[in-house]
Write a structure and sequence with these properties.
The complex is a heterodimer of chains A (539) and B (373). Chain A has 539 residues and is mostly helical. Chain A contains 18 helices and 2 strands. In chain A, strands 1-2 form a two-stranded antiparallel ribbon. With 373 residues, chain B is of the alpha+beta class. Chain B is built from 11 helices and 10 strands. In chain B, the strands form 2 sheets. Chain B has a 5-stranded mixed beta sheet. A 5-stranded mixed beta sheet of chain B has the order 4-10-9-6-7. In chain B, 38% of the residues are buried. Mean pLDDT of chain B is 87; it is low at 10-22. Classes of the chains: A mainly alpha (539), B alpha+beta (373).
Chain lengths: 539, 373
């Protein structure tokens, strides 16, 4: 086994390895930092596109009556909003963070498979383009929800569904390649002196997430392929008149879909496990239990899928099993929350922007966890299922969970990425703006759901009017906060004040031993055992 | 800031003038034993969550306020405790077991439909519900009430029109499901096209309607009254517009209602065998069209091209009657089947489509539909 360590690296040779100039740098790059940036900017663009769709949804729901769009277009909006946010925004953003950070955190020069890395990114704009192009086709874009249940997505779907299937296949390719690359990098490119239990938690959570991706994405590919043959080649996997079963689709979809949920949250746990110790100036509490809890959650995520399907007519024994297994997830998740709070406990805390995002992550993600526990109680799920209570739940875990951690990570590592410091004052204004508006947006949706408002409806009866209006106002404010975020990030890149190698007083980790703006190839010589121990979270 | 204050005061004004502002915050307790059990479970888990939240967030915020660098607090250096880890693994397990026991009891109870005294078959269609009383021989379709349809299909549907419709906007139908009080009822739920979900919150009944399969649920309703619900599974364009209205009546009133319906059903059978005049068919057909077809093909027959083709100058409405009947009976692609309608209604609506909007098709008699089935 040879590692890519270039022992002859000198200042002179480094110059040789610099990036190409101009646009072709981004097309041809095999550098983990460039590709990480591409992923992040792609994800950010998708957040804005998916967010614009959310604005259309909230505008239509601002008051009762059909004012802005027709019901068919409304369904296209909810469907594409979900697909774009899950596959275009959250997942690529985490792959981007993984690309940027993992080589720096494990003392490697780059990713293990750099050309595949380039390919797995450049598939994405094409997949996203194909998906978005369906809006301009006869019959419109997919309008069957991001969960695309058959037979609405097969027999009753618009022609553009075949393009959607192709796009999902491409996105799946990209994710699987990204996951293979991360596994290969972590296992083969790690500094020789770094043991697995020396790895920072972000690396651990991404390693485990990669295995989830490799397990789950092929199942999704299977589901859409069966859809494709049902639609075009006369099979009837999901059609009862041909001996198939529409519920089979849901089993396959959620066998992918539930691990997918943890694909989107485990790296977030990793990010927060870096930020809280830094600003508490205290080592992470329970490093090894954090690793074991992550692995337990990943394992459980494969055996709870049918809790999304309590109302499909499952036998009672199946419902009992899936209810018990689901409730178990609360245990390792609870361990994580307790560990974060114990890390904060008797620390010496300061509240720079990344810490504000991390603390609000713990608070708001836990609220999403509580509603998740309620949803897991099978009989109670009868009243929650497919209502706005579910909408509130998954936005608390995905927006104030996954997205929050991505924003937290951006502020935390932006100085290392750019060598410059962002505007702390503006960033704090942005934080409070976002955290208040996001709660105005999503908290009332709990009440709407409990009062009986189904999800995915374009119009509603008058009893739901007030909370919908409040939610919409929160939505507009939260949407607008992204303008400020864009400004803060671009302002940092252009005009930020130069920073030191370790801008955060309490920060630990190999990435902070690099130059203020991390050099193009992170570690040309592997870090020593002493340095690894010094910077380890498991001290 | 000034703008925000104006916006907020406008919002407050809007809410205070809204007569329907009820601020429903919580789940309904409902009127069946199941819905009450579910409500109790919901409240139990909710309060346990609140208690855990107070303890956990209390510790976190105490730490946030007390353990600050700005207050000169020096960081401790502890970073593990096996005792603590075991404790906060074990305690949640115990709490979860405590929740799982009553949850399992309720679940087993609500899945046991064997004690039912009567059955209702519910079939979901895009976008209406069909109710069958198999023993009584009653069958009818329940559509969104015309008052709501007038609002949503007018473009744009403004707020005044909505308010004029009243607080049952989108929650009223033309024909109510009628059920007897204090009777254990089994619901057999299925679908004719895509997956729907029949949900009446007050009964604690929500069950997927899967095409090709029959699911069941049960309820024994304790209180006379009118209860409303909605489809709870995305089923296409008008998913938001297929509500459920149930009248729960005394057993005597129920028996009376059944007798009336049976008489009406007999009359319908008779009408399907006679020969209708074109005017009769057109008059009947307009009503059937507006209820079943206007959602996609529009009241004036203009459709919503390219997804929903116009009726006006349509090659089908002006072409062979047999093809037209076949299409309406069996559906095609996005067009659902309408075979659940009676022969007289189908003949009327097909005749209407072939002769309204300036079309010049032939007249179709109920007997034509009967033989085409």
């Amino acid at each position: 086994m040879t590692t890519a360590t270039d022992t002859t690296a000198t200042g002179h040779d480094d110059h040789h390895h610099g990036p190409e100039k101009g646009l072709m740098r981004w097309v041809k790059t095999t550098n983990h930092k460039d590709i990480g940036s591409l992923y992040m900017w792609f994800a950010f663009t998708m957040v804005l596109i998916g967010g614009a769709m959310a604005m259309v949804i909230r505008m239509e729901l601002f008051q009762p009556g059909m004012q802005i769009v027709d019901p068919h277009f409304f369904n296209q909006m909810t469907t594409m909003h979900g697909l774009i946010m899950v596959f275009g925004a959250i997942m690529p953003a985490f792959v981007g963070l993984g690309n940027w950070l993992i080589p720096m955190m494990i003392g490697a020069p780059d990713m293990a498979l750099p050309r595949m890395n380039n390919w797995s990114f450049w598939i994405l704009p094409f997949a996203g383009g194909i998906l978005l192009s369906t809006f301009f086709m006869d019959g419109g874009a997919p309008a069957f929800g991001w969960t695309f249940y058959a037979p609405l997505s097969t027999t009753f779907a618009p022609d553009s569904t075949d393009f959607f299937i192709f796009a999902v296949h491409l996105l799946g390719f990209s994710s699987i390649m990204g996951a293979i690359n991360i596994i290969a990098t972590v296992l083969n490119m790690r500094a020789p002196e770094m043991k697995l239990m020396d790895m920072p938690l972000f690396v651990w959570t991404w390693l485990i997430t990669s295995f989830l991706l490799i397990g789950a994405m092929p199942v999704l590919a299977g589901a859409v392929t069966m859809m494709l043959t049902d639609r075009n080649f006369g099979t009837s996997f999901f059609d009862a008149t041909g001996g198939g079963d529409p519920v089979l689709f849901q089993h396959i979809f959620w066998f992918f879909g539930h691990p997918e949920v943890y694909i989107m949250i485990l790296p977030a746990f990793g990010v927060v496990s870096h930020i809280i110790p830094t600003f508490a100036r205290k080592p992470l509490f329970g490093y090894s239990s954090m690793v074991y809890a992550t692995a337990s959650i990943a394992f459980l995520s494969y055996i709870v899928w049918a809790h999304h399907m309590f109302l499909t007519g499952m036998p009672v024994a199946g419902e009992l099993y899936f209810m018990y297994a689901t409730m178990l997830i609360a245990v390792p998740t609870g361990v994580k929350v307790f560990n974060w709070i114990s890390t904060m406990w008797r620390g010496s805390m300061t509240f720079e922007t990344p810490m504000l995002w991390a603390i609000s992550f713990v608070f708001l993600f836990t609220i999403g966890g509580f509603s998740g526990l309620m949803l897991g109680i099978a009989p109670a799920d009868i009243q929650y299922h497919d209502t706005y209570f579910v909408v509130a739940h998954f936005h608390y875990v995905l927006v104030t969970g996954a997205l929050w951690s991505i924003i937290a990570a951006t502020f935390y590592w932006l100085p290392k990425w750019t060598g410059k410091m962002y505007n702390e004052k503006l960033a704090k204004v942005h934080f409070w703006w976002a955290v208040i508006s996001v709660n105005v947006l999503f908290f009332p949706q709990h009440f709407l759901g409990l009062a009986g408002m189904p999800r995915r409806i374009p119009d509603y009866s008058l009893q739901f009017a007030d909370f919908n209006m409040i939610s919409s106002l929160g939505g507009f404010a939260f949407g607008a906060s992204f303008i400020l975020l864009t400004y803060i990030v671009i302002d940092c890149i252009r005009n930020g004040k130069p920073t030191t190698a370790r801008p955060w007083e309490g920060a630990k980790g190999l990435e902070w031993t690099l130059e203020p703006k991390a050099q193009y190839h992170s570690f040309n010589t592997p870090p020593s055992r002493k340095l690894i121990e010094q910077e380890s979270q498991n001290s | 800031m000034k703008r925000l204050t104006t916006l907020l005061s406008a919002l407050v004004a809007m809410m205070s003038t809204n007569v329907f502002a009820e601020y429903a915050l919580n789940m309904t307790e409902g009127v069946t034993s199941i819905s009450r059990d579910i409500y109790d479970l919901h409240m139990m888990v909710f309060w346990i969550s609140v208690i855990i939240a107070v303890v956990v967030f209390g510790a976190m915020f105490y730490s946030v306020f007390a353990h600050r660098k700005s207050k000169g607090y020096k960081a401790a250096n502890f970073h593990e405790s096996t005792k603590a880890e075991i404790l906060w693994t074990a305690i949640p397990v115990i709490i979860l077991v405590g929740m799982a026991i009553p949850a399992s009891k309720t679940l087993i109870d609500l899945e046991d439909t064997s004690k039912a005294e009567m059955s209702i078959k519910i079939t979901g269609h895009q976008w209406k519900w069909q109710y069958d009383y198999p023993k009584e021989g009653i069958s009818f379709i329940s559509n969104l009430a015309q008052s709501s349809k007038d609002v949503i299909y007018a473009t744009p549907a403004d707020r005044e029109a909505v308010d004029a419709t009243g607080d049952t906007y989108l929650l009223s139908v033309d024909k109510h499901l009628v059920l007897p009080v204090d009777t254990s009822i089994r619901f057999l739920i299925t679908s004719n096209d895509v997956i729907h979900n029949w949900w009446v919150p007050a009964f604690g009944v929500k069950q997927d309607a899967n095409p090709g399969f029959i699911n069941d649920a049960w309820a024994q309703i304790d209180e006379i009254g009118t209860y409303r619900g909605q489809c709870a599974e995305l089923c296409g364009k008008d998913h938001g517009f297929m509500p459920i209205v149930v009248d729960v009546v005394s057993k005597a009133d129920y028996a009376k209602w059944v007798a009336e319906q049976q008489a009406a059903a007999a009359a319908a059978v008779a009408s399907a065998t006679k020969t209708w005049s074109k005017d009769e068919l057109m008059a009947q057909g307009e009503g059937v069209y507006n209820t079943n077809c206007a959602g996609c093909h529009k009241k004036d027959g203009s459709g919503m091209p390219p997804i929903f083709p116009p009726m006006k100058d349509s090659p089908i409405a002006n072409g062979s009657a047999a093809d037209h009947i076949g299409l309406v009976l069996h559906g095609k692609g996005g067009m659902p089947t309408f075979k659940m309608l009676g022969d007289a209604d189908l003949a009327a609506v097909i005749t209407y489509e072939r002769n309204a909007f300036g079309n010049t098709g032939s007249v179709v008699q109920p007997s034509d539909v009967t033989s085409a089935r």
